[in-house]
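ARCHIVE CARD
Drawer: 12
Card no.: 0347
Subject: one protein chain, sequence and derived structure
Cross-reference: see card 0346
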Amino acid sequence: MNLLARPAVRLLPLAFGSLLAGAAAAQSLPELYEAARAHDAVFQAARAQYDANVFRADQALAGLLPQVALQGGASRTGFGNANPAVDRDFTTRSATISASQPLYRPANMATWEQSRRQVQLAASQLETAAQDLIVRVSQAYFDVLAAQDTLAFVRAQKAAVSEQLAAARRNFEVGTATITDTREAQARYDLVLAQEIAAENDLRVRRLALDTLVGRADTQPEPLPAAVAAVPPQPPDLDAWVRMAEEASPAIAQARLALDVARLETEKARAGHLPTLDLTASRNATQSPQGTTTSALGTRSNAGQVGVTFTVPLFAGFATQNRIRETLSLEDRAQAELDNARRSVAQATRVAYLGVLSGTGQVRALEAAEASSQSALDANRLGYQVGVRINIDVLNAQSQLFQTKRDLAVARYNVLLGKLRLRQASGTLTPDDLRPLVTP
């Protein structure tokens, strides 16, 4: 009967070894993140949107640069007169090149300033998408590892219950136990079989989700360093994280830039009351080889013009005044959205920080519970050997131990993901934060 204590110790390494047999070909989390950057449709769409925003912003520079146009034309005229001798047809050809350079257009200048803010806004939005991708890949990565751990624990529990079932049958055959022990062990074994089937399916689903995200088939996540989850967040100060979020959060940066764009839109609206000044130049050439309506001789003329155009708006049907009122209201909305972004980011940072602290505390508690559950299992086995415990006590102790192990593994992954979410909430999440999660 002493043999019952030894196989459970050996089963976990064997179970993990079978699941991680392909560790030589395993991929690390940073490696899979880089693969996802090149494959994930959501991130690719965000990058394409960023490129589009950059090109759209560059269009605003056209309002400050010269505009040049070339125009040409040809016409055929049939000329008739009371005197048939002067009847004729003639062709007229003309070409004009014109150019203008804005000298003072405050609305165009405000549009260009807006475009610069919009490029920064697009960059911040792309950074948000990159941080979101880090979290999504990490979530899928940890889900696969947790599913692998769950399957390993279930198989180890199945082996332990199988041995307990065999022992109950032997004891029943020699008359030292009742049929109840055998039936209880059989029922627990059937239950674990059902759990194994569910765990295998869950692992397949988790792997499929990771494969889809990174664009690879049959990914094998690399196991994480054992003690990485025990490291507390740095700095260990909630207020410091909130201040960091105020400075670095892409959500706050986007709200600030949106407010700048709204204020510049108000400047553009007010520019509707201001004059404009443009430098203009043109050159025209006209040729009629067969003459004109006034002369039978061919003609050719060239004309050039250089000047400035000064325009003063006087009245636009109150459109400008109402446009200013509209942009002022939009500016108030942008200010309110900035205030909301600050509050939301501060709250999300606090929630994420407290979640990490709670998670690390839960890990420590589960580690203690694991040791206690192991001691309880050993005590129940010993009690079963000496006859003061029954088979169901051992089975319950086994179930409690393996459930605690599963909960501990999931809690560790949740702490790791919580740390990444904390950095995402504070706006400081980068791919370098995945490096500590690589097995040395």
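Annotation on reverse: Residues 2-62+106-273+316-437 form a domain with the Outer membrane efflux proteins (OEP) fold (CATH 1.20.1600.10). The radius of gyration is 39 Å.
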